[in-house]
Design a protein that fits this description.
Distance between the termini: 25 Å
Strand content: 35-45%
Organism: Bartonella fuyuanensis
Protein name: Putative addiction module killer protein
Radius of gyration: 12 Å
Helix content: 25-40%
Order of helices and strands: EEEEH
Strand order of the largest sheet: 1-2-3-4
InterPro entries: TypeIITA-like_toxin_pred
Largest sheet: 4 strands, antiparallel
Structural class: alpha+beta
Shape: globular
Number of domains: 1
Length: 60
Amino acid sequence: MEYFRGIGELKINYGPGYRIYFVKQGKQIILLLNAGDKSTQQKDIEKALQLVKEMKHGNY
C-alpha cells in the first residue's frame, strides 16, 4: 500500500493491474473512493482526490 496526496492506493497484481483508492477517517473507518486499472490510473486518482475534497466540505 502507498499513500500520497492524502489518499491510499492498494495495488492488486492480477490482470490489468487493479488499483483501489481510499482514505482513512480515524483508526477504523476506511472509505472506498474509487477503483480502476493501470490504464485509468491518473483519471481514477483525480476522481478520488475530488471526492476527498467534497467530503471535507460536507458535499458528499
